[in-house]
Write a structure and sequence with these properties.
The protein is built from 2 helices and no strands. It is mainly α and 87 residues long. It is rod-shaped.
């Protein structure tokens, strides 16, 4: 009933192609509409870059926690061995 996103002819097209089609589809496009299309393109690029940076940061934080956990576990084992050797 609604818009069929799965069979959209622009699905998989580059962002520049979609922006070009937006502008080309407006035969009397004013510079305001062209600016809006370009703004939306840049906004989308910024969102994609932010998502990629968030993924990298999340991966970094995960491995930081893994290293910290290993360090704490190592310290615990050393202390247990030291205390049991002192008896």
């Amino acid at each position: 009933m609604g818009y069929d996103y799965e069979n959209n002819e622009l699905r998989g097209a580059s962002l520049d192609d979609v922006t070009g089609r937006m502008i080309a589809g407006m035969p009397n496009a004013s510079s305001e509409l062209e600016a809006r299309a370009e703004f939306m393109r840049r906004q989308t690029v910024a969102a994609q870059e932010t998502a990629a940076a968030t993924q990298r940061y999340t991966r970094y934080m995960f491995w930081s926690v893994v290293v910290l956990t290993g360090s704490a576990l190592g310290t615990f084992v050393v202390e247990v061995l030291r205390l049991s050797a002192g008896k």
